[in-house]
Amino acid sequence: MLTMIGAGPGDIRYLTLEAAEEIRRAPSLLAFPRVAESIRDLRRDVEAVTSVDEMLARIREAGDTDVAVLVSGDALFFGFAKTLQARGIRLDRILPGISSVQYAFSKLQIPWEGARFLSFHGRDADLDAVAGSGPVAILLDRKYSAERLSFELYARGVRGKMTAISRASYPDERIVRASIGDAMAVDADLALAVIEIEVDGRR
Fold this sequence. Notes:
It is built from 6 helices and 10 strands. It is an alpha/beta fold. It folds into 2 domains: 97 residues, Tetrapyrrole methylase, N-terminal domain (Cobalt-precorrin-4 Transmethylase, domain 1, 3-Layer(aba) Sandwich); 97 residues, Methyltransferase, Cobalt-precorrin-4 Transmethylase, Domain 2 (2-Layer Sandwich). It comes from Aedoeadaptatus ivorii.
């Protein structure tokens, strides 16, 4: 049986109880390095896998034996579950996790039922999709940083506030809040932005 576990935004404190129990009891546990390191206090023998191709190979090698794959955030929010499904790999169970976006909205105390969600992480940036009302949350990476997003939105005439969060939930978490167009120095590898766009002078 193949189980995918959402590990939350980063810090082990944000694991669900169900996820923690499954991490402890899974016969075999695979994770990418950052996630593997974050849960070693729960499971010392977690196998750190360094690439998507290696992860796919290990899953296929497991065959019908029980294996759990631990992924950051929630497996179905721009997550690895979609990668497996696209390759015809069937998941028997998915345990939900707290996404970095959920964490960010709670941290910033911004209601998010009307929010829109985008990912520029390893994807082409669609700046046209940012325009509109309501807050927008965007997952970022080193290629498309919060600072680049801030500058490019400003150049397109977008105004408002932007909050960038790097290493969400970790002890060295950093939050920078500024106007769109300002410089934003945050860790580019583990970052997201929440944008509150001004429409007719209102956000």
